[in-house]
C-alpha cells in the first residue's frame, strides 16, 4: 500500500510540475495565469493516475526489474576449502567476504550457459566429493534470490555423491536481464543446465536430479517432462498457480500487519494485468500441474511445504504431490508445520537431509 501511495504522489507531483511549468510559460509570454484551471487539471488526473498510470508503472517494474535481492547480489559462487569441503555462505557472511577469503578456500567453477532463446546464464559447478555416485543435480532458486539460496541443499546433495550445478535463472545473480515470464521462459534455463550435464563425458551412464524452490519449482516442473535422464525430482514450496500466488504476494496476506507490501483491490488486479502485458505472459496459462502429470513413471519425487507458508498453501503442496503420476511409495510428501515459504531446510535440517537421503537411495 505504501508503494501505491508513493507512486500516486510521484505522478501527481510530476503532473503538478508540468501544469505549473506551462502556466509559468504563459505568464512569461504575457498571458494571464490560470491557477484555478491548474488545480482542476491536477485533481482531474488523480483517477487516471490511481487506476492506470500507477498500476501500469508497477506492472512495468514487476516485469523488467526482477533481480536478486541486494543482500545476495555480491554472491560469486560456493567456496571450497583446500581439502574440497564446502564452506556454506549466508547473507551475513557475504558482508564479510574479505574475511571469508582469508580461509584456505577456492571458488567453485563458474559455468556460462546459453538458453534456447539466446539468454546468457550463470551457474556454479561443484563436483561430488569422495562419495561419488553417477548422479547430476541441477538446483534452481526462487524469485529475487540466486545461487546463494541453494548452497545448503546443494551441499547436502553433494554429500550424497551428486555432481551439483547451482543455476541462476535469467534476471538473477550473474545471468542476463530480460523481461521476466515467471516460469515458461525460465524453464528454458533449466533445460540449458540439464543439457550442460548431457554434454559431459559419460552422461549416458548417469542420472539426473532436479531441485526447485518457489519460482524455481515452476521452471523445474515445466522443464522436467523434456529432460530425458530425469530420475529424481525435489519441489520445495511448489507454486502450482502463479496467478493466484502473485495475487497473494501483492495483497500481502497475513503479513500485511507486519509491514509487508500489500495492495488493496482493484489495484492488485490492475497491477498484475499490466505486469502480464509488459512481460508478454499470461500467468493463468502457466500450469505446472499439467507438466507434472506428463512425467514418466520412473521418476522418484520429494515434495516439501511449510505449514506456515502464506504464499503456497498446504493444499497446493498436496496437489503438486498428487499430480506426479507415480506410485505413492515412489514419491514423498512432507509438510514442515512451523516453516514459512522456502525455509524448511533451515527449520528442520536433519529431517530435510534424511528425506533427501531416503529419496536418493533409490
Task: Tell me what you see in this structure.
With about 350 residues, the protein is of the alpha/beta class. About 40% of the residues lie in helices and about 15% in strands. The protein has 13 helices and 11 strands. It has helices at about 1-30, 35-65, 90-95, 95-100, 150-160, 185-200, 215-225, 240-250, 265-280, 290, 315-325, 345, 350-360, and strands at about 80, 85, 105, 110-115, 120-125, 135-140, 165-170, 205-215, 230-235, 300-305, 330-335. An 8-stranded mixed beta sheet has the order 4-5-7-6-8-9-10-11, with helices on both faces. The protein is elongated, with a radius of gyration of 24 Å. The termini are far apart. Residues about 255-260 have low confidence and may be disordered.
